[in-house]
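FAQ

Q: What does a record look like?
A: Structure on top, sequence underneath. For example:
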């Protein structure tokens, strides 16, 4: 589609947002064929260009095991690497997802205090899931908007 062509050109020119949006089109099959490999490459380029959403989305592809093919096994270590990059760039979703990996010990050593810290950071960044898992909602803490 026209949008895909525009985002592809923007991504090739070094636009993090172009890469992010191209990755979204491929994962959501909006105007293009569903293509996880192309999505991964787009998000990887966006993350390299310091787009937090791209890093978080790339981590999710690795966690879901869709980094090379539809039925590939999850790569939790790589999910953690990209969630950390997203969290460091103030992406609350990345913080919450990384917290979940620490809570479960997937791709990282299980660490309840690190999970709680990440959930709390996610809550501070406006992610309700982070508030629920940090115990914040029981204490009356609500995500900031």
């Amino acid at each position: 589609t026209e949008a895909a062509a525009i985002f592809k050109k923007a991504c090739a020119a070094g636009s993090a947002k172009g890469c992010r949006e191209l990755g979204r089109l491929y994962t959501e099959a909006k105007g293009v064929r569903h293509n996880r490999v192309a999505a991964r490459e787009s998000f990887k380029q966006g993350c390299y260009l310091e787009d937090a959403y791209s890093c978080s989305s790339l981590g999710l592809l690795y966690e879901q095991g869709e980094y090379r093919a539809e039925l590939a096994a999850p790569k939790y270590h790589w999910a953690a690497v990209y969630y950390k990059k997203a969290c460091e760039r103030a992406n609350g979703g990345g913080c919450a997802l990384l917290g979940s990996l620490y809570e479960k010990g997937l791709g990282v050593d299980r660490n309840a205090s690190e999970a709680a810290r990440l959930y709390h950071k996610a809550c501070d960044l406006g992610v309700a899931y982070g508030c629920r898992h940090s115990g914040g909602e029981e204490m009356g803490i609500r995500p900031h908007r």
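Q: Is there anything notable about this one?
A: Helices lie at 2-12, 16-28, 36-48, 52-63, 76-88, 92-104, 112-124, 128-134.
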